[in-house]
Amino acid sequence: MNIDTIVTEQYHGKSPRELVDCPLTALSGIGEKEAQALQDAFQVKTIGELARHQAIANAFAIEMMAAPGSLSASETAKETLLDDAVEMTFPASDPISVDAGITRIEVAPEKVEAARDHQNASAIAAHNEEACGQTNVGTPQTQSKDVGTA
C-alpha cells in the first residue's frame, strides 16, 4: 500500500512510525471538524490513538470475519468436527471417510498379516517345498539369515 494515498499532502514522505503520532487531520478525508468529533466521541487526538481504540478494533474484527470466504457458524462447526476427526486418526495412512455410509473397512482375505508372516515367508516356503522338495526357509543352514523366525 502506498501510504501517500491515505494521508494528506502535508504528511507525504513520513514514515508510519512518524505518522502514528500525527494528528487525525493527517488522514485523507478527516478535516478539523471530523477530527474534533472523533476527539469528543472517543477521546483520541492522534492516528495511533484512533488505531488502538477498542471500538475501532472491534469494528475491524467484525468486518474481517464477515469478509467473503468466511464460514458461517454451521460451516465452522462442521469444519471443526472434521478437523477433530482427522486429529483423532493421526497418524493414519489413509484419510478418513467423509461419507457417513462407510461404517468400517475390512482387510481383504488375500492380504497377509505382516506381523505374523513377514514378506509372506510361509507361502514362499510352501512353494519352495513343492518345487524343490525343501522349504529353504527356517532350516538350520538359513536360520541365522531368516528374519522373524523363532
Automatic annotation (TrEMBL):
It comes from the Bacteria. Residues 113-150 are annotated as: Disordered. Residues 133-150 have a biased composition (Polar residues). This is Helix-hairpin-helix domain-containing protein. It comes from Massilia suwonensis. The lineage of its organism: Bacteria, Pseudomonadati, Pseudomonadota, Betaproteobacteria, Burkholderiales.
